[in-house]
């Protein structure tokens, strides 16, 4: 019995040691491919957050390899554990809009007039994120702007591929716009808002509703470091910030492929730019081009990328990359001209920075009023850091204040 006990303890010790070595090895590998720019305020905090995210992903991968659960399921489970209690200033209720789960935040303080309504679409690369992960942010927006906020729990990839997330956000928004009176909201003051992938969804929904005559016009769109195109992953910001947490260049392309196809089989072609024929790239170059990025944003070592052609076989598998509901930056001018007043937040150390800058230019060129706020010391996902009191950043609060 003693021998069995000793062997069991030895086995567990070896397993735990091996587990720790695997995690540390993955962290070291990820560190060697990552960079914290000197312009980031409180870089140690960002490194700590990065370590936590890597560790979570590695543990999930190990559990997947031994057959317990998928990596995606594990990460989602951990993300959703932070559940907040009741809010003294808000009524919070879970409902369904057209088979889409939503969470509504309504200020308790009586209002003399109808309130603003905010449809909020969470980020997470269309693969992660939920009503829980953005609970604190939605509460903050509802309280500080005294608005009714509707957070949308859209379907996630890879289980539910494009256009599932877009359709859920669109249907939930239309439902809300048709029933604003139930929530004390002025139908002329409904806003769509989202961060990262949620910003993509907000832009796509806004474009779709721009031509609708049977609904009130959206009052505004708020796009928080949105991803808006998948044609060019070699724009200046993608090169400059390719290894900056919390979103690497490779992961940005990976998430788009997961959303579109449920796999990342053409990742290398997408990264090098050989997934779209040259003639199509040239057609969109008036909108997606480094030439449209202000020179000051190219100072950190940008090198022009050579245009590569693609095979018919490759393009046949990724041709939906050019659909505006996936890449709102590619919408025609006639649609852009109808868009509502817009707020765009970008971060200097974010691969998606130039997506926001290019969209800002497109909107302004088409007569749409744009308020742009740029976090010089910001990185992708910084607003979400407000979820943690001790791992939050001053820039995150500045960003939230401007959003509000």
From TrEMBL:
Signal peptide per UniProt: none
Coiled-coil regions, chain positions: none
Entry annotation: catalytic residues: 196, 350, 380
Example of a GO cellular component annotation carried by this entry: membrane
GO MF annotation: an example: carboxylic ester hydrolase activity
Domain Alpha/beta hydrolase fold-3: 118-263, 312-383
Keywords: Hydrolase
Pfam families named among the record's database cross-references: Abhydrolase_3
Family: Belongs to the 'GDXG' lipolytic enzyme family.
UniProt name for this protein: ADCL4 protein
Taxonomic path: Eukaryota, Metazoa, Chordata, Craniata, Vertebrata
């Amino acid at each position: 019995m003693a021998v069995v006990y000793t062997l069991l303890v030895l086995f567990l010790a070896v397993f735990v040691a091996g587990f720790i070595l695997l995690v540390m090895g993955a962290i070291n590998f990820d560190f060697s491919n990552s960079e914290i720019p000197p312009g980031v305020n409180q870089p140690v905090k960002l490194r700590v957050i990065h370590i936590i995210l890597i560790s979570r992903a590695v543990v999930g991968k190990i559990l997947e390899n031994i057959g317990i659960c998928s990596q995606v399921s594990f990460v989602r489970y951990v993300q959703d554990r932070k559940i907040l209690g009741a809010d003294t200033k808000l009524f919070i209720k879970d409902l369904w809009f057209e088979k889409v789960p939503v969470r509504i935040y309504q200020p308790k303080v009586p209002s003399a007039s109808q309130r603003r309504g905010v449809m909020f679409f969470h980020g997470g690369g269309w693969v992660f994120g939920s009503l829980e992960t953005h609970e604190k942010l939605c509460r903050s927006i509802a309280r500080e702007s005294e608005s009714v906020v509707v957070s949308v729990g859209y379907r996630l990839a890879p289980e539910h591929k494009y256009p599932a997330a877009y359709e859920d956000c669109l249907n939930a928004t239309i439902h809300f716009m048709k029933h604003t009176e139930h929530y004390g909201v002025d139908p002329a003051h409904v806003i769509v808002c989202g961060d990262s992938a949620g910003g993509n969804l907000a832009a796509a929904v806004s474009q779709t509703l721009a031509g609708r005559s049977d609904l009130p016009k959206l009052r505004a769109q708020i796009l928080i470091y949105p991803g808006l195109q998948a044609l060019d992953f070699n724009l200046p910001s993608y090169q400059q910030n390719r290894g900056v947490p919390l979103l690497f260049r490779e992961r940005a392309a990976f998430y788009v492929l997961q959303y579109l196809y449920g796999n990342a089989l053409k990742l290398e072609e997408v990264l090098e730019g050989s997934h779209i024929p040259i003639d199509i790239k040239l057609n969109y170059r008036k909108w997606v081009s480094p030439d449209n990025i202000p020179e000051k944003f190219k100072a950190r070592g940008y090198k022009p990328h050579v245009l590569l052609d693609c095979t018919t076989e490759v393009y046949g598998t990724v041709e939906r990359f050019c659909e505006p509901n996936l890449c709102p930056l590619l919408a025609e001018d006639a649609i852009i001209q109808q868009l509502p007043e817009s707020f765009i937040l970008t971060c200097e150390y974010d691969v998606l920075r130039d997506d926001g800058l290019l969209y800002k230019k497109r909107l302004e060129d088409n007569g749409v009023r744009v308020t742009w706020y740029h976090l010089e010391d910001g990185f992708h996902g910084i607003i979400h850091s407000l979820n943690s009191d001790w791992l939050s950043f001053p820039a995150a609060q500045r960003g939230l204040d401007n959003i509000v």
